[in-house]
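Budget justification aside, the reviewers requested a transparent look at the raw inputs and outputs of the sequence design task funded under Objective 1. We therefore reproduce one unedited record. The lines immediately below are the structure tokens for a 173-residue chain.
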């Protein structure tokens, strides 16, 4: 098996690896801080935020799943935990009894007003300030890194969270 390219700079390679590790650690640190501060995982926070921001404050699990970029099954499990925590209510639609709508409970509405901004919102805000050409350059560079790490076909939701928060020890949510 051939070794690493002798022309590649070890310093650049180590700095790239260190940078990737810093990103992973930042995501983990942020997730742990949120869990301690708010008592919610990032996916739970995103679901609570989406339900609270919905106009007129009600939505279905399928609509929520689409908005937070998670599977309906995972989203349903997250909603179940939010319901058990007394933050979200499920109600049958007056117009269509088959349609179950989600809304915040009074406790959920109070929590919604106090939610911190998720890391990905701050990231996206900063990314959008960059010129389009710079955004494209970053995407191309990350795409090349994905190929180098054999990760270009790994499925991932556009959420900055550790996988354990999405899949959890006892299943998604």
């Amino acid at each position: 098996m051939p070794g690493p390219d002798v022309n590649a700079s070890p310093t650049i390679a180590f700095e790239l690896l260190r940078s990737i590790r810093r990103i992973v650690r930042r995501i983990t640190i942020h997730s742990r801080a949120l869990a301690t501060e708010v008592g919610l995982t990032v996916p739970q926070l995103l679901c609570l935020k989406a339900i609270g921001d919905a106009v007129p404050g009600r939505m279905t699990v399928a609509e929520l799943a689409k908005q937070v970029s998670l599977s309906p099954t995972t989203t349903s499990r997250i909603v179940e935990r939010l319901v058990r925590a007394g933050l979200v209510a499920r109600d049958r639609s007056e117009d269509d009894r088959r349609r179950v709508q989600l809304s915040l409970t009074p406790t959920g509405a109070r929590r919604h007003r106090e939610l911190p901004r998720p890391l990905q919102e701050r990231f996206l805000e900063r990314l959008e300030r960059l010129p389009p050409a710079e955004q494209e350059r970053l995407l191309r560079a990350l795409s090349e890194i994905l190929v180098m790490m054999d990760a270009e076909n790994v499925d991932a939701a556009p959420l900055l969270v550790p996988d354990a928060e999405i899949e959890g020890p006892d299943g998604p949510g």
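The chain is about 60% helix and 5% strand. The radius of gyration is 20 Å. Computational costs for records of this kind are itemized in the attached budget.
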